[in-house]
Amino acid sequence: MPININWNVIKALFLNTLKKEMRSKTLIFFLCITICLIFVVNSGVDLVIKSFEEENLINLKSQKASFFYWFISLWSTILAMIFGVDTIKSDLESGITPLLLAQPIKRWWYLLTRIIGSSAMVFSYYLLSFLMAWIIFFVSDGATNVNWSLIGALLGTCLVIVAVITISAFFTLFMGKLVAFVLSFILIGIINLGNTTFSSIAFSDHFRDLGIAKILGLITYYFFPRIGLWSSLSSSLINGSQPDFNYAIELAHYSVTIFILFFLIAIFFQKREM
Amino acid sequence: MNVESGPLGTTISKGSLAIEAHEVVKNYGPVQALKRLSLMVKEGSIFTLLGPNGAGKTTFVKSLLGLVSIQSGNIKIYNKSHLDSQARLQLGYLPEKFTFYSYYSILDTLDFFADLNSVPQDRHRANIDRVINLAGLTGMEERKLSTLSKGQLQRVGIASILVGEKSLLLLDEPFSGLDPLGVKDFKDLLERLKKEEHKTLFINSHNLAEMERIADQFAIIHKGECLAQMEMSHLPQGMNLEDYFTQVVRGQSSPTHAHL
Lengths: 274, 260
What we know:
The structure holds two protein chains of two kinds.
Chain A: H1 7-22, H2 25-52, H3 60-87, H4 89-94, H5 96-101, H6 107-141, H7 149-172, H8 177-199, H9 212-223, H10 227-238, H11 247-271
Helix pairs in contact in A: 1-6, 2-3, 2-6, 3-6, 3-7, 3-8, 6-7, 6-11, 7-8, 7-10, 7-11, 8-9
Chain B: E1 3-5, E2 11-13, E3 17-28, E4 31-42, E5 46-50, H1 57-65, E6 72-77, E7 80-81, H2 85-89, E8 91-94, H3 106-116, H4 121-134, H5 150-162, E9 168-172, H6 180-195, E10 200-205, H7 208-214, E11 217-222, E12 225-231, H8 241-249
Parallel strand pairs in B: 5-10, 5-11, 8-9, 9-10
Antiparallel strand pairs in B: 1-2, 3-4, 3-6, 6-7, 11-12
Helix pairs in contact in B: 3-4, 3-5, 4-5
């Protein structure tokens, strides 16, 4: 893979991706639903608190923001899958890909800019939802839990979005959007499950009592970006707790696995006939 | 000038070639789409590749662009491998149906293609104005692609090639779906491109009558094989292109040595 890069072309392709994805009806729909949800959660929880506070059933007020942040993280992941299955496939289906690849560009530039551009759009959705929620919760409750660890949380979410989009885009090279979406959903579910399981047990126990399910979990744990761990890290940081997380090893693991995944997509895409 | 023997026994000055394809083989699974196809296209000419449906015309164009890989043979664009990005800088492609993002305006589209072809920013606007004028799109710059007719879209397609300062234009069935006026306007545009812009045009077409009027050279391919390649002016006496094409494809005429 040649490494000479024409940054002006990369910039043009990246801006083209943003322009393309900005028009996504799904994104607009998700944003509208999110805004509604912020108000519903905010006023709904307040109502419940007023009704039950005397009985001290549960301290919902403190969990309001946590619930919302969990919700937008979940939706960002789903949105990332939707964008992932669409970003390359829609160009292939509409016949635009041959026109673009007939230009003096490398195929991997096209792939990279599609993945990064889509990730930027989903991350913007996440950031916007996050800011709106923070403003509304601050106005209504005066609650702020802003601290520097939030930046770490946002970066963690960003890594999750890039990985989910890359995985979903990979599937679309071989199948239709719907099947790719379902498979991405299943794989990301398995990755999350595997991450939760294997991060909580000692390394020496990883390869003991191997069964099919455990092997599958191990494959996702070692050979795919650890979406589950990064997602948990972000949630913990948002909620103000400091999880036990080896940043150096996990960042190195993420970098290597995402590079391999991208390399595989680039190889398959390079061989694809248009 | 470097002179050598070309396909079908032609003698060609090598320095003047825009496309040089030698023994190109392309298979789609068990189907042989191109069978040792050799073609040469002179710089500054209008060349048309003729053949019935499924003859391999589009496959050949896609091979030139590197959109499909060839099993053997070699292709050179201005003496460089067709896979070399420098060669692709010279090569513009207009598919049978120009499709681009419907929400882009003509101006956005041309700006994007100028960027993709690394046209320096200081030449962007001048280039865009020039090709808009050349393609007959003046006054329509802000119109979205979704509002354009098929003929207008083809013009945008041509403009998107020209804005990238390409010298060799590959046009795949450019008259397909155009009404008679659209065909006339498009034909005039192609002639202007040759005469005023000195472009080399490679046209895949079924439209024998139009091609006979505008092309300088032609080749006939059938089932992936090149059956004939010659100058239009060297058609056998008393025969038009349609008669000749029918004879060659139906096997009533032996493969013809080219006279380039």
